[in-house]
Amino acid sequence: MPVTQLQVLLVEDEPAQREVLAYNLEAEGYAVRRAENGEEAMLMIAEAPPDLIILDWMMPLMSGIEVCRQVKSRSETRGIPVIMLSARSEEVDAVRGLDTGADDYVIKPYNLRELMARVRTQLRRAHPSASGEVLKFGDISLDAQSHRVTRAGAELKLGPTEYRLLVTLLEKPGRVFSRDQLLDHVWGRDIYVDTRTVDVHIARLRKVLTAQGGDDPIRTVRGTGYALG
Fold this sequence. Notes:
With 229 residues, the chain is of the alpha/beta class. It is built from 8 helices and 12 strands.
């Protein structure tokens, strides 16, 4: 089973633009969820945080600026990259959008190829394994292209679930992941798995990582979840 498909939440109230952009995102291999307004977007984010948000500024019920402000003010969602789309081309508007926490600001009408490149850039920063980079933490190294994992130079044999768990933890060292977040990242948002399953696979991952006598790099945060380091 491959690493879970990256999820993009597209928030755009204009149907034609929404569908054209969704088509191009899906052609790039992303799973796309659509929202027509800011309030619907906030409900979808609370239900299942996406890997990236593409957000129109001018929308009914709740503006893109307010959605961005709320996303970036919450610890559980502030790490999600946000690309703001706007017909407002004044420099002061771009500054306001970025000051609210947007990671990028794109002026309408935009070039689709350029926008797709910006999407790839933001997802690469948030999920370096998606671009085949080598992830490292201490003496642990994971080559996302070859799926080879080593510790202190010795190759480790991980099952597919333990591999995906390690990828998730290595991408955000120090970040505490709840069991539900790990379920979303590793098993996928549409698959029901009991949270106790996470504990079982974390134990298996720990066993492999410490088989050669190294310290356990995974920290248990009581009542919350797990973190690397």
